[in-house]
């Protein structure tokens, strides 16, 4: 399937999502690898079977095997890290922040693709998962690497639209089954 079939599945009441989906993916100023890695990582993070089923094949067609694997790795490691660091941040007992994490996350140091791309994908997944600590951390790494705010915003625009489309289409599927 494809981006076009996903857009056509969006109901009329969510027309803005359909338009935004086309623009944040189809009209992005980001290089193709950054766009499609962000799309794949956020489609996985959205937990929407419909969105993932429609976007994964197109992302795979636009990404090298290394980038495809790295985008999936970003979604996987951030699924763990976002829960861990968000919980640490939300706990009233700040002593947890002094404890060793003890979690393996080697892929962050050696993702197999350009570090900026991996950080951008990790940032976008963190936006969906709502981890402020991870958002701040990845944003700082990106900014230190010379990435401008507009580029970073492109990633979280993709995340926002992919997540919203997933929520909408999954809700429609449930309501249609009733």
TrEMBL record:
Domain of life: Bacteria
Domain Carboxymuconolactone decarboxylase-like residue range list: 96-175
Key words, A-Z: Antioxidant, Disulfide bond, Oxidoreductase, Peroxidase, Redox-active center
InterPro entries: AhpD, AhpD-like, AhpD_core, CMD-like
The reaction(s) this protein catalyses: N(6)-[(R)-dihydrolipoyl]-L-lysyl-[lipoyl-carrier protein] + a hydroperoxide = N(6)-[(R)-lipoyl]-L-lysyl-[lipoyl-carrier protein] + an alcohol + H2O
Job of this protein: Antioxidant protein with alkyl hydroperoxidase activity. Required for the reduction of the AhpC active site cysteine residues and for the regeneration of the AhpC enzyme activity.
Assembly and binders: Homotrimer.
Stated family: Belongs to the AhpD family.
Name this polypeptide is given: Alkyl hydroperoxide reductase AhpD
Source organism (scientific name): Streptomyces lienomycini
Gene this chain is encoded by: ahpD
């Amino acid at each position: 399937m494809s981006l076009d079939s996903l857009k056509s599945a969006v109901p009329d009441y969510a027309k803005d999502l359909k338009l935004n989906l086309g623009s944040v993916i189809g009209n992005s100023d980001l290089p193709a690898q950054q766009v499609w890695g962000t799309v794949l990582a956020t489609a996985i993070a959205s937990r929407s079977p419909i969105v993932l089923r429609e976007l994964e094949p197109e992302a795979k067609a636009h990404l090298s095997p290394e980038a495809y694997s790295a985008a999936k790795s970003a979604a996987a490691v951030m699924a763990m890290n976002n829960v861990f660091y968000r919980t640490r941040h939300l706990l009233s007992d700040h002593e947890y922040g002094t404890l060793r994490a003890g979690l393996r996350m080697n892929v962050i140091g050696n993702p197999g693709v350009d570090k900026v791309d991996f950080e951008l994908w990790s940032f976008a997944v963190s936006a969906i998962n709502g981890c402020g600590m991870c958002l701040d951390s990845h944003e700082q790494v990106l900014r230190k690497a010379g990435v401008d705010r507009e580029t970073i915003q492109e990633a979280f625009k993709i995340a926002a639209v992919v997540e919203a489309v997933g929520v909408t289409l999954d809700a429609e599927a449930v309501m249609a089954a009733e």
